[in-house]
Each structure stands twice: as structure tokens, then as C-alpha cells.
Amino acid sequence: MKVLGLESSCDETGIAIYDTETGEIWQRLYSQIEKHREYGGVVPELASRDHVVKAAPMIKDILFEFGSLDDIDAIAYTRGPGLTGALMVGASIARGLAWGADKPLLGVHHMEGHLLAPMLSEDKPEFPFVGLLVSGGHTMLVDVRALGDYRILGESLDDAVGEAFDKTAKLLGLPYPGGPELAALADQLNESRFVFPRPMVNRPGLEFSFSGLKTAALNIIHKHQPLDDILRAEICFAFQHAVVDTLRIKCDRALTETGYSRLVVAGGVGANSRLREVLAKLTKDRSGKTYFPAHEYCTDNGVMIAYAGALRLDAGLEDDNVFDVLARWSLEDLDEIPA
Ligand code: KG4
Ligand code: ZN
Fold this sequence. Notes:
Nucleotidyltransferase, domain 5, five-stranded mixed sheet, binds zinc ion
């Protein structure tokens, strides 16, 4: 089965085709980051408008390389969670294509896309596993028992990890989205004179809270004006160290609680080198293994939507003639995919 996938939940327009038989992938990705940078964050109205402009030509272009829409078996799009207007653009285009070409259509959960992206690698994780989803909008630990069978073990009570990276980077004067830039500065050092708190590690449970780290950074910044490059890098190091350490402690707890040996990391912050290194060591010490998506599939992309959609469509699932998007949508509300 060949599935065309559309991702438009935030500020990336992702279009991809996934062939379930051969594993072949065609893809196009357009990032709107430059458009939003001057505002220091994603402006929803601008995001929707840009998806309108970019999506159709990108689909035309990918189909030109692939062959023809006739050879596509089904269409998948991101139904949620995400920005309503941006989701509506992808949903409208996908619904229009499906009606026009008489193809089955399926709305995909964006976080399921992230969670399954590591399965596109050659070294695929097997079920069950603990999923750590760390993106700009979400931070959660998930008990992944089978395809579509998800139980949320813990979530962030306030800022998502990526959001905490971006907000702290903004306080340090780094351009949006500052996560990767903050990480690059942190990776220049081996130590820092600052120690940030490890939020909520002394309490039982698997919830997270990251907004206090931003405040800790702000207090240090106020005390040390003007900031020089060394100080800035030391703050980045201490911040990243605290975030990664907190995630390590909670992943360790989730693995103990579930009794699983496999950990799967997904979402934009999964690209963080320090996080990759520390979690790989954690599971190695526990005689288990951590699986990561390829760097290009960590952040938002169309391939993960085409792939998650393909697994569901292949199992015979498809949408009725619905046309809706879900800005909020829990992973736990998904149906298990029949084996
Ligand atoms: O999954 P994603 O592309 O979008 C959402 O669905 O949110 O994640 C984007 C987030 C941003 O907050 C970005 O700063 C962060 O992932 N990010 C990183 C790194 N690369 C991306 N954070 C820390 N270190 C990185 N290397
Ligand atoms: Zn995402």
C-alpha cells in the first residue's frame, strides 16, 4: 500500500509517500521558522496562511517525482493535536484529494506519528516499550503495549521540555526556536558554576514540571548583567544538565514501573545529543536499549504521518465522511490497531 501523508499541525508543512511493501519513502518538508522568528514564536494565523500557499504545490511536486495520484492507495493527514487553523488546512486538502480521487482517508494523531517514527529505522523497537515524547508542545512518558494501545504514565504539568528550552534560549537572547542553539552552547562546556534544580524528582510519580527552570535562569541572568559568552554558555550547560538529568530519573522510574527494557525517544528534543547519550547509557546499565528516530524524523515531518496512517489504513481502518480536526486529543483515546 502506498500512502500519501500530510503534516500541518504547527509550523512545518510535511508531505510524504510511504510504501508499506518496500519501505520506500518520498518526502518534501518546508519549515516556516523564518516567518515566525521575528515574533519569537509561532503565530497561528501566519502558520495557516503559509500552509495554504505551500501544501498544494508540494503535493504536485512530490507526485511528479513519484508518478501519479492514481498509484496512491490512501491518504493520511494530521487530525490533531495542534493549531486548529493549521490543522484545518491539511485536513481540507487531504479530504479534497480523497474525495476527488476516490481514495480512503484517515486522520492521524500527531503524537502517535512521533512515537512510531523510530520504527522507520532499520533497528526497529519491538513492543512493549516506554515512549518518551519530548517536543515543543508535549512532554510525556507513555506505556506502549501495542500499536494504538497507549497508557500515559506521566506528563508535564506546565511547560513542555522543548518550550522550556525555547523560552530559556529567548531569555539568553538566542534566536527562535532556541532549543538547538542553547544545546550547541551547552555542549561547548564540561562544567558550570551554576546548578539548576531537578524539578519533581523527590516526589513519587512520573509527572514533570519545567517552568521553574526558566525562572532559575532568569534569576541568574538578572544577577550577572551584562552576560558574556562564557556565562551564557554556563547557564546553557546547567539548564541542559538539569533537564536531561530529570528526564533520565523519570525514564528510569518508568522502566522500573513497567518492567520493560526498551525505551523509545521521540519528538524534536529527541535530537538533543546530551539526552541521547545519557538515555543510551541508562538503558545499557539496565541491560536494555534506547531507540531514537533518525534526526530528520525527530522534528515534525510528513513521513511519520504517512507511516502511522499506513499502519492503520493497512489494517482496514479509515475515516467516515467526517471532516474535523482536534486541537486537543489524548493518545489514550486512540483505538488499538488490530494485529
Ligand atoms: O517535535 P517538534 O518538531 O515540534 C512539536 O511538535 O512541538 O519539536 C520542536 C522542539 C522545539 O522546542 C525545539 O527547540 C526542540 O524541539 N529541539 C531541541 C533540539 N532540537 C529541537 N531542543 C533541544 N535540543 C535540541 N538539539
Ligand atoms: Zn511534533
